[in-house]
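User: Run a structure prediction on this.
Assistant: Running it now.
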Amino acid sequence: MAFDRITVDPGRMNGQPCVRHMRLTVRRVVELAAVYQDREQLRQEYPELEDEDIRQALLYAAAYLDDRVLDLPLSHETAA
């Protein structure tokens, strides 16, 4: 998949992947998507973000996650 809205510039934001050369990193956009469950509220706070920006940031993050198994504590329901 081509990420035409994700940009990397060593001179901006310490070379972190950003959205359309803005000072919004992919990481920040993923965090915002989690915090603002209502996309309309997200659009009000960050009017420069477009739906395709958010979609590509989420896809980019998913594409670059390692497939690894993490040991998590057992929940009370399964431990009993």
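The chain has one domain: 6-65.
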